[in-house]
Amino acid sequence: MSQLHVAIAGATGAVGAEFLRLLEKREYPIGRLTLLASRRSVGRTLRFRGEDLPVTELTPDAFRGVDHAFFSAGGSQSQAFAPAAAAAGAVVIDNSSAFRYDDEVPLVIPEINPEDAFRHHGIIANPNCTTIITLMALAPLHRAFGLRRAISSSYQAISGAGAQAMAELERQVHDWVAGRSLEVKHQPKQIAFNVIPRIDAVQDNFYTKEEMKFVWEGRKILHHAELAATATCVRVPVFRSHAVSLNLEFTKPVTRDRALSVLRDAPGLAVQDDPTAEIYPTPIEVSGKNEVFVGRVREDISVPDGRGLALWVVGDQLAKGAALNAVQIGELLLRGR
């Protein structure tokens, strides 16, 4: 396989660090790696394959000769620079929400809709982290039983809100132990020993944007425009990995055993399901792992005719929920159809 010129836009961030780790671990065919970030990060170096590589400024001219450009620099930076990268001949794999709802830009989870990646015009969008984790379990069940309705309740780690929010949780815990008052600065309410049922901006329908992402992106990825879906997204005092409770209604009858068989055969999933023996996934056990984990699978007793299912899904939102999915899109392009 020929060696590629690869660029990472947003290389100094948390997802950028995951890109570096995964590109090295998965032996991505890189002949040259360009690390890009804002002007204030210029001069830093980052370690890759035993070398210290310099960080250079993200500009429209930074993509000459680049084959694959992984973007995780935020939506405004993607809008400003991704078109320039594509115009220079790079395939952009963008981790922001900038292009997810553009009909001309494919939104791809390789295990679910790989064929969409080959319809790109220079830019491929990476879905929202919670959408990826949720659909990894939902999509194979949809293929087997025909999904009619999905109810999602997510329990999202504080790292999804950024480094300052993570530091605030840690500081609040230390202050609570020391008997000091707790400062609230980067979250709307105290996050330590609490849950916050609002992530992202509230929309006109009183859902938040994070909740509507599941609806919009789920329909696009599954090619299921009529999917009835609703979500509640909650920030929890967990440092890393998101968890999702799903209640699904199908057009065909489903049993726990049949569902488990489908889930065990699905790529990228790991089933941990024996609650009587305390076997089920939790964020602390899943962090740093590439698979999405499923447990607590049971028939939904509120849905008639045996057409309902309830389950619990957990995944690392920095790995499969972000950088890993993007790297897998790149690998998919390298393999071809």
Can you characterise this structure?
By secondary structure, the protein is an alpha/beta fold. The protein has two domains: 4-127 and 322-335, Rossmann fold (3-Layer(aba) Sandwich); 131-317, Dihydrodipicolinate Reductase, domain 2 (2-Layer Sandwich), CATH 3.30.360.10. It contains eight helices and 13 strands. The chain has helices spanning 14-25, 75-87, 129-145, 163-177, 209-222, 256-265, 283-286, 319-335, and strands at 4-9, 30-37, 45-48, 51-57, 68-71, 91-94, 123-125, 147-156, 228-235, 242-250, 269-271, 292-299, 308-315. The strands form two sheets. It has a seven-stranded mixed sheet, sandwiched between helices. It has a six-stranded mixed sheet with strand order 9-8-10-13-12-11. Strand 11, helix 7 (283-286) and strand 12 (292-299) form a beta-alpha-beta unit. The longest helix is centred in the middle third of the chain and has 17 residues, at 129-145. The chain is globular and about 60 Å long.
